[in-house]
Design a protein that fits this description.
Blueprint lengths: L4 E2 L13 E6 L18 H5 L18 H15 L1 H21 L3 E5 L18 H4 L4 E6 L12 E6 L5 H9 L4 E5 L5 E2 L2 E5 L14 E5 L12 E2 L3
Parallel strand pairs: 2-3, 3-4, 4-5, 5-6, 6-9, 6-10, 8-9
Antiparallel strand pairs: 1-2, 7-8
């Protein structure tokens, strides 16, 4: 039914219990596609431990053998080389998703950077970005890119993402009121004097309390991280 969006994400499906249907876009992370870097601020640790390797995305050792990975690469190449038609398809998918969720009695929400970190506010369709085209629909993402000009976009929520080498940016984000996601081997109740909110209970970051660390448990290849991307609490 959908050309680009998916609902087959175990974590995002947890939102159904709260009345939300989450639709996600999986692109190929960082420079894995060979045509574009979709994560301009990726650290070495987050590249290695990216969620791209968890769930269905990690079922095969070699990318060439993975239907899921190849599909993400194809979508990313489409975004890079056929931007207008890609965005048109994305709009149609969002319209379909809204109808589908409404029929199920659920509220549709969208995470377009499930395995990427693209500044979607920069890309226009007939003079409007995707958030402006759907002003009554909630969008949300994680990002490592500071100073994105989204403060005026009321229906787009961002959670900053900690890496092993971006502490200065993390400190800035916290000082300016952003929640920051940390990846732990075991999610603690507090860290560095801040409350840690369990970010694995659902993926609905726009419902999180403010002024907290969003604790995420290491998944996929991140479980074996030694870079400092995953914080060891044991």
């Amino acid at each position: 039914m959908f050309l680009l969006l998916s609902t087959s994400n175990i974590k995002t499906q947890k939102g159904v219990k709260l009345g939300y249907a989450t639709y996600v876009l999986h692109l190929s992370p960082s420079d894995l596609s060979g045509v574009i870097n979709t994560c301009p601020k990726a650290t070495l640790g987050c590249k290695i431990g990216c969620l791209n390797t968890s769930g269905h995305g990690g079922m095969y050792t070699d990318i060439e053998d993975s239907v899921v990975q190849q599909a993400r690469i194809r979508k990313t190449k489409w975004f890079a080389t056929g931007r207008d038609s890609f965005l048109e398809a994305l709009v149609l998918d969002i319209q379909r998703a809204i109808k589908q969720a409404t029929k199920k009695g659920l509220i549709p929400v969208f995470r377009l950077n499930c395995t990427s970190d693209i500044s979607w506010e920069k890309y226009k369709i007939n003079g409007k970005n995707i958030f402006e085209l759907f002003p009554t629909v909630q969008f949300y993402d994680y990002t490592k890119v500071l100073h994105r000009k989204v403060g005026h976009i009321h229906n787009y929520h961002l959670t900053f993402s900690r890496g092993e080498s971006n502490q200065a940016e993390v400190d800035y984000a916290i000082a300016n009121g952003m929640n920051v996601a940390y990846v732990f081997d075991k999610t603690p109740a507090t860290y560095d004097g801040m409350t840690v909110f369990d970010g694995d209970d659902t993926d609905l970051r726009f419902l999180d309390p403010t002024g907290v660390i969003v604790g995420l448990k290491a998944k996929g290849r991140a479980r074996k991280d030694t870079s400092g991307f995953v914080i060891r609490t044991k």
